[in-house]
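Exercise 7b. Backbone tokens:
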């Protein structure tokens, strides 16, 4: 079942770790200042920028990635996708809640930011993007996470 949603109804990354690095980050969440050329309500522009943010799992893995794994074309990373001004990723938990959470871009509380890759622009409208995200929230349950077969890399 496809649905659209308000981001306020989802779990924020800061809520998971009990830390909120920027309280103003939650103000006007889910709203967009962009309007169609005709300014019709509910009509949003297309061409929203999409970025992939890559993190080292921790400082030890950062050293291993840099020194040993990267020269072999390997590595162990966490990833999130930024769209509409928020970063979305998939995480594990022992419950049936959604494993899809959002946070301020490049600000993961546990993993160490490494780099970003520009993925270009989405041809979807804001409403269509939110519908896709809503579907992912429904499909990506936290207790379905698997370190090898279904993780943040698969989600991204």
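Sequence design result:
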């Amino acid at each position: 079942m496809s649905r659209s949603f308000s981001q306020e109804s989802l779990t924020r990354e800061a809520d998971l770790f009990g830390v909120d690095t920027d309280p103003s980050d939650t103000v006007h969440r889910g709203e967009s200042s962009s309007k169609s050329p005709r300014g019709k309500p509910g009509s949003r522009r297309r061409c929203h920028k999409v970025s992939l943010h890559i993190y080292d799992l921790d400082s030890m893995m950062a050293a291993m990635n840099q020194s040993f794994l990267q020269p072999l074309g390997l590595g162990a990373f966490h990833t999130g996708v930024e769209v509409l001004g928020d970063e979305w990723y998939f995480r594990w938990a022992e419950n049936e809640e959604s494993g899809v959470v959002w946070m301020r871009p490049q600000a993961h509380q546990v993993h160490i930011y490494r780099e970003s890759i520009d993925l270009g622009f989405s041809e979807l409208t804001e409403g269509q993007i939110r519908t896709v995200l809503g579907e992912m929230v429904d499909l990506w349950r936290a207790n379905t996470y698997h370190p090898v077969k279904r993780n943040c890399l698969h989600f991204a």
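Instructor comment: The chain is about 20% helix and 25% strand. Residues 2 and 65 are 39 Å apart (CA to CA).
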